[in-house]
Specification:
The protein is an alpha+beta fold. It has two domains: 3-154, Ribosomal Protein S5, domain 2, CATH 3.30.230.10; 157-279, GHMP kinase, C-terminal domain (Alpha-Beta Plaits), CATH 3.30.70. It has nine helices and eleven strands. The strands form two sheets. Strands 1, 2, 3, 4, 5, 6 and 7 form a seven-stranded mixed sheet that branches. Strands 9-10-8-11 form a four-stranded antiparallel sheet. The two termini are 28 Å apart. The mean pLDDT is 96.
Length: 281
Amino acid sequence: MDFTLTSCGKINWGLWLLGKRKDHYHEIFTPIQKISLCDLIRIKPSRELRVETTADIPQEENLVYKGLKLFEEITGLKPLFEVFIEKKIPIGGGLGGGSSNLATVLNFVNNYFGNPLNREELLNLLASVSSDAPSFLCNGVAIATGRGEKIECLNLPRFRGIEVTLFVPNGISSPTGKIYSKTHPSMFNPKEKVDLLREKIKKLSPEEFFQIAENPLGGIFLDLHPTVKEDIDFLQKVCYKKFIVSGSGSSFYTVGSLKGDCLKALDKLKGSYKIISLVAL
């Protein structure tokens, strides 16, 4: 029997750094929400494990393959499946496509085998392969802390269905490790600030929280890609709207649809970006 799974990308409602850890990862605080930009995954039992995509990703480098091999190592069960991923989420755009694929497939496979891993064990497996993968098991807003692997799922219905306009630069990928390597202690925030943010997101509307959102990783990305920074500056002047980089880049977004002169201004950018109207899930 064939199964079809939907694996959706994400945006970050800002990202705050708290410091650098002894294991060289950074301590972060970031609210994450899935969006209606999704890969399609077809999976069926097979005589051997095979993972393929419409993108040029070698099987051994695919997070799904790595996760399934680890699942086998932990449970002793052989996940003999043929997995085909039709990629719609841009790679290297800060939208979590690979992590979403990993979480979606591993959650399915765990259910298929009768849940040999409890939720905590599954989350730990996902986190060991990709820090932000656990957030994709949340419905609604996921508050990610630690290096991104610790999650608190919030039920915030007012965040669902919010319109988002996403800009994905053509031909620009943003390696997460490179961006984090350029952080500076001046970018770090006190714990008291993120504790306050945790309470604010529970009370504010999405539009209100977006206005206070920050992302120093986005600033680093824009310093490395000044043409994208110029385009964001242009959009903010024409549209009278805030735009923010998602995660470590390369994508950026604004809340709401674009209208009037702002919509006309997109003609200048259409050759350089995929511009996608989405909703938060």
